[in-house]
Amino acid sequence: MSELTKKLFTLAFIREGNRLLLGYKKRGFGQGRWNAFGGKVEAGETPEEAAVREVQEEAGVMVVGGVEKVGELLFTFEGDPTAMHVMVFSARGYTGTPTESEEMKPQWFSVDSLPYSLMWPDDELWYPIYLRGGKFRGRFHFQGHDKILSEKLEEVQTFD
Ligand SMILES: COc1nc(N)nc2c1ncn2[C@H]1C[C@H](O)[C@@H](COP(=O)(O)OP(=O)(O)OP(=O)(O)O)O1
């Protein structure tokens, strides 16, 4: 079996009570889907620093008080030797007004009516854990970008 190369990404949430800020991805990977904010971790950055930077670049708001890690996900795609290792964070606070960027169009959603049919198919499996304050670790193997062939998801207390 061939070796997988793992690339590190972030995904970060801005949440205010019962509403969650998502962005409509206008270009690139995941184009046409609503998602949290994130991208590649650059050389010399910690995942936390990358998460804060991506939120600022994509949603136009500044994270205040840092980010808390809430999840760790591994995505693999049939026929693709590169796995996406995604660290999921929740911002402790933010300042500023969400503003459309070249990559994302931000919009607030009620946590009770998230647009799951327009999001990645894995999201409706792990979002409920995040939304009730839990932490999780999961892996999802895709055929194309629409079909999950296999999955493993667990709620965890810590990430050590
Ligand atoms: C496969 O399922 C996925 N579900 C969810 N919810 N999010 C995913 C999934 N696969 C990837 N992602 C996330 C991880 C990252 O936040 C983005 C992809 O990052 P992107 O390619 O946009 O990285 P950037 O550094 O912003 O890229 P460019 O600046 O080169 O456009 O999707």
Automatic annotation (TrEMBL):
Its cofactor is Mg(2+). The keyword DNA damage does not apply. Gene3D superfamilies: Nucleoside Triphosphate Pyrophosphohydrolase. Its main location: cytoplasm. One of its GO terms (molecular function) is metal ion binding. Keywords: Cytoplasm, Hydrolase, Magnesium, Metal-binding, Nucleus, RNA-binding. It holds the Pfam family NUDIX. Oxidized purine nucleoside triphosphate hydrolase which is a prominent sanitizer of the oxidized nucleotide pool. Catalyzes the hydrolysis of 2-oxo-dATP (2-hydroxy-dATP) into 2-oxo-dAMP. Also has a significant hydrolase activity toward 2-oxo-ATP, 8-oxo-dGTP and 8-oxo-dATP. Through the hydrolysis of oxidized purine nucleoside triphosphates, prevents their incorporation into DNA and the subsequent transversions A:T to C:G and G:C to T:A. Also catalyzes the hydrolysis of methylated purine nucleoside triphosphate preventing their integration into DNA. This is Oxidized purine nucleoside triphosphate hydrolase. It comes from Cherax quadricarinatus (Australian red claw crayfish).
